[in-house]
Amino acid sequence: MPWNTVRKTLNYYIFQISGLDTNVNFLIDLASHPSFQAGDVHTGFIDTHLDSLFPPIQISDETITQAIAAIVTNERYVAIALSIRQGCRGSPFAACDGFRLNSYLERTLSIESNGQKYNIHIRYVGSNYEIKIDDNDWKPFSINSVKDSYPNRFTLKLHLDGKESIFSTVIKDNYIDIFNQNGRNEFSLVLPKFFTECSTDGSTDGETDKSSDKVVSPMPGIFDKILVEVGEWVEVGQPVAVIIAMKMEYVLKAPKNGTIKSVSKKLGNSVIKGEIIVAFECDEQKPKI
Q1: What CA–CA distances, in Å, run from 66 to 7, 111, 254?
Q2: Which pLDDT belongs to residue 82?
Q3: How far apart are CA 139 and CA 131, in angstroms?
Q4: Half-sphere exposure (CA, 13 Å, Cβ side) for 130?
Q5: Where in the chain does DSSP place strands (E)?
Q6: C-alpha angle with apex 101: 221 to 126, nearest 5 degrees?
Q7: Same structural domain, 184 and 83
Q8: Fewest Cβ atoms nearer than 10 Å: which of 12, 33, 69, 87?
């Protein structure tokens, strides 16, 4: 089998596994190694080529921009879905991504990968964008969908520096997986300080109050999903609800074991910081049926 076919197979049919650590990136590097392709393979192959098979991890500006493209695309999908759910189909807040009269929207965010933090500036310019990574120069880029997308999972074409690249992405909470020609790259969106300092029981020190009998919204947003039912017994840390804030989904979790007593809000309603979403009775042991 031609090696470029092996690489394509790894890229597009095998390697798109999210949420688990795999050795697919290594297999892609192995299949791309000139000595491996030349058939110069022996039992000491990995030891001989250790440095080239396991080089220091360096993330390109292209891959970082792909992660940002995934984030802004997901935000647009979430905004459109939310407007439809609220009966505001065609809302300009969803349809006009980043639109501002007589000015350009500019925002900042931070992402992390392999222990490295990247400070990102994004400028919305019509239907396209500009990006500034750390202290580098501004670069224009554009995004197009390649095929039908699913919530939090899609394939995109990025135009950057006069080149096109096609990649797939999976977004879960504030985690972003990018699958491109080099394998899988994992990113996390750095949450704002005011969010991380407020837990889902209403405390503000970042620590969950284990004696709490409620789950509250840590920030203003939209009550999007309820993951439990009244009367259901849940364990500490179990996801119970999802809110949408800043066009991202945030999962609220139970602070301790207990039985769901009530759900205080209706799906689609706005919630304020500290508002009770779910209340429950604290039962350390699961009731016997």
Answers
A1: 20, 12, 34
A2: 66
A3: 5
A4: 12
A5: 106-113, 116-125, 128-133, 139-145, 153-160, 163-172, 175-180, 183-189, 214-216, 221-226, 233-234, 239-245, 248-253, 258-263, 270-271, 276-281
A6: 85
A7: yes
A8: 87
Q: Longest Cα pair distance anywhere in the chain, in angstroms?
A: 66
CA angle 111, 124, 271 (to 5 degrees): 65
Is residue 133 scored above 90 in pLDDT?
yes
86 and 13 housed in the same domain: no
Q: Is residue 103 part of a domain?
A: yes
Locus of tokens 């900042």: 108
Residue 286 lies in a domain: no
Range of the domain at 110: 61-189
Q: Mind listing the pLDDT tens digit for each residue in 238-286?
A: 889 888 876 677 888 888 888 888 888 788 888 888 888 888 876 666 6
- The CATH number of the domain holding residue 112 is 3.30.700
Cα dist. 127→6, 8, 47, 90, 246 in Å? 37, 31, 49, 17, 20
Residue 88 structure tokens: 């505001």
Residue 13 has a pLDDT of 47
The tokens describing 215, both together, are 């789950």
